[in-house]
Design goal:
Length: 646
């Protein structure tokens, strides 16, 4: 066993002799360094492994951090956290602290086990120096990952790029940075400039911490001590300054890019803000004229209830009445032409108001603009023109404050697969300022309300949930903490009847203190939950009212169904026309006929008497009279609006 170290020493010496032949420059450089000769220094594994390997080991967390950040972005978890009140500064601070803790733990174990194994890179240098330098580098690495994360939207791409970057960084450090650094004929400022690239800073750190490169020309290197930090020769002071400057710059850049998307966008937006503040008055009056023209144009197409709603909104805005939960003022969303697709007006000058204690339902066919409207109200996209006031605050400027008082159930479930249902609710409950016992109570109640409490479901990871369970959890998240305004985009899609009923009950009880805005394709749901309903087609509201009003106005017919022998069809038709000359036969199939009879001038009792009497002389096997449904009204409004927009 004792022969093994000697053998290792022999092999390594041979290897070093070979390398020293090729690295004469390096040898001369090392000779110049202030490290006194010393001959019995044992061979060190850090030299055998090479600095490149240590650079890789220290950078190993970089791909992990980047993938985590991009995952939250790709899954839109970041957006949903923001919508529930998690501010940008808080998000970045928490993320930074979390990754810093992780990085420090990782470095602690790396240095600890490295020291136990006797690796000189760790044992020779003062641990205080190592802590300061690695702490600074870890901060820089995290801020660099933050910056990189603003450019990626796909986890897989981000991971691959991050691993390639890590491998490439070690490689370029060894074969590009080191030769330049060791070339004494080159000015030091070149290497200082290169150290602005974070992995090269790290390579320099590893280089300075490592024992001399060749034991053939052994020097008495006893590692870096606390006092050496300020010594200009080892360059640690410069590197620490560079890393601190870069850390701050990367964080600022991240905030900037996070807010504006790209540097160009940000500069353009900032320039336009300055420009508009210079000649704001002339632009404002110009904008007013444009809005007026657009308004006059759209008034012709609007219906009376929509017009009345617009008038009320204008009155409320003039009175500055802050008691209304939501006021939309001429909201418009245009998606600009992109990738060969033409420009799309998703929402057209929409004005409406919503009160606390009410549920407002937005119905509309696919592509009507419901999600675009909710996206604007939740700050997910910015309106092209117009605005909305949520609890008296403007969505254009106060979104940060608005988020603290709203709840959102988006169309697609935005959940962490690795967290349990209970953990989700605890997290969002805390964001809504619930603490201790109040938080536990609220979480338990929420879980019970959406039937996720019993059978330990609450403590299962979301990855094990069915689609319906995830949907119910999303609804529970939107309602926790009693938000003043709640947006629900098709909350019951994919739910079984019992779960849907439970969800409706939860919404009904939450409605008392909240204004709920709900989009749905279920007429039954709209009738059960909504106090007012607006039907949207092609981006604009076609009608507003409660379900009774809409049915009366747009479904203004009774539906009579009669089944007789096929030979008696003509007689039945004559009978119906004698009751209501304007009756319209919808279909006739082997004796069964369906008629729509306008309500005007028609009494139900008259129809009943006529049918009872007809039974005495006709072979009527079945008949029925029903009022028009909300679905009838919806189909009528949608088809009429579609025709008028052609
Ligand atoms: N990011 C986008 N870029 C371009 N067009 C878009 C974008 N998002 C939506 N649209 C278009 O805007 C219109 C309104 O879409 P939106 O998703 O708001 O409708 P919706 O009423 O919510 O539909 P659904 O009921 O199917 O969810 C559609 O024609 C859609 O194709």
């Amino acid at each position: 066993m004792l022969r093994l170290p000697r053998l290792l020493n022999l092999v390594s010496t041979a290897y070093l002799q070979y390398r020293a032949r090729d690295t004469k420059m390096q040898f001369e450089f090392v000779k110049d360094m202030p490290r006194a000769a010393h001959t019995d220094m044992p061979i060190d594994i850090s030299f055998l492994l090479g600095k490149m390997v240590f650079v890789w080991m220290i950078m190993l967390l970089f791909p992990v951090i980047l993938s985590n950040l991009v995952y939250e972005k790709q899954q839109k978890l970041r957006t949903i956290m923001k919508m529930h009140g998690l501010g940008d500064v808080t998000y970045w601070t928490i993320s930074h602290c979390y990754f810093l803790l992780l990085s420090l733990l990782y470095m602690f174990f790396l240095v600890f086990f490295g020291s136990c194994a006797g690796i000189k890179l760790f044992t020779l240098n003062d641990y205080r120096v190592q802590f300061v330098v690695y702490f600074a580098y870890m901060n820089l690495q995290i801020s660099f990952a933050f910056l990189m994360a603003t450019y990626f939207s796909n986890v897989r791409t981000a991971s691959v790029v991050a691993y390639l970057f890590t491998i490439g960084s070690g490689y370029f450090g060894e074969y590009l940075f080191r030769p330049i650094f060791e070339d004494m004929s080159l000015s030091r400022s070149w290497t200082t400039l290169m150290e602005f690239f974070p992995p090269f800073s790290l390579y320099r750190i590893v280089y300075e911490f490592s024992p001399p490169p060749s034991p053939l020309y052994r020097t008495d290197f006893s590692g870096l001590h606390w006092g050496d930090l300020g010594d200009g020769k080892n360059g640690m002071k410069d590197i620490l300054i560079i890393m601190a400057l870069e850390w701050a710059t990367f964080l600022l850049l991240t905030f900037f890019l996070d807010e504006f998307g790209t540097l160009r966008n940000g500069i353009r937006k900032m320039a336009s803000v300055c420009h508009s503040s210079v000649d704001g008055s002339s632009q404002a009056s110009q904008k007013q004229t444009i809005q007026l023209q657009e308004f006059e144009y759209s008034v012709e197409m609007d219906r009376t209830d929509v017009l009345r709603e617009r008038e009320i909104v204008e009155q409320l805005l003039q009175e500055s009445d802050g008691s209304y939960s939501v006021i939309c003022d001429n909201l418009k969303k245009v998606y600009h032409a992109k990738d060969g697709n033409p420009e799309k007006i998703a929402v057209t000058e929409l004005s409406l108001y919503m009160q606390r204690g009410q549920c407002f339902g937005i119905l509309g066919p696919n592509g009507a603009g419901k999600t675009s409207l909710i996206s604007m109200l939740t700050g997910f996209t910015k309106p092209t023109s117009g605005t909305a006031y949520i609890n008296g605050m403007d969505i254009r400027s106060d979104m940060g404050k608005i988020y603290t008082g709203i709840g959102v159930c988006p169309q697609f479930d935005l959940l962490w697969e690795t967290l349990t249902g209970r953990e989700h609710l605890l997290f969002y409950g805390r964001l809504k300022n619930l603490r201790c016992a109040a938080l536990d109570r609220a979480v338990e109640q929420s879980l019970k309300n959406v039937r996720l409490f019993d059978g330990g479901v609450a403590d299962k990871r979301v990855a094990e949930y069915s689609g319906g369970m995830k949907r119910r959890l999303s609804v529970a998240i939107s309602l926790i903490g009693d938000p003043k305004v709640v947006y629900m985009d098709e909350p019951s899609s994919g739910l079984d009847p019992a779960s849907r009923r439970a969800l409706w009950n939860a919404v009904m009880s939450a409605k008392q203190n909240t204004a709920i805005i709900l989009t749905t394709h279920s007429m039954e749901e709209a009738e059960a939950l909504c106090d007012r309903i607006g039907i949207m087609v092609n981006g604009s509201l076609q009608c507003i009212g409660n379900s009774k009003e809409l049915k009366a106005k747009y479904g203004g017919t009774y539906v009579l169904t009669v089944t007789t022998a096929a030979a008696e069809e003509e007689v039945v038709e004559q009978l119906v026309r004698s009751l209501c000359p304007a009756a319209n036969r919808v279909y006739r199939i082997s004796g069964t006929q369906k008629f729509e009879m306008p309500k005007q001038g028609l009494r139900i009792s008259q129809v009943f008497h006529a049918m009872q009497h007809a039974k005495t002389w006709l072979n009527i096997s079945a008949w029925g009279l029903s009022d028009a449904t909300l679905e009838d009204a919806f189909i009528k409004v949608a088809s009429e609006s579609d025709i008028s927009s052609l």
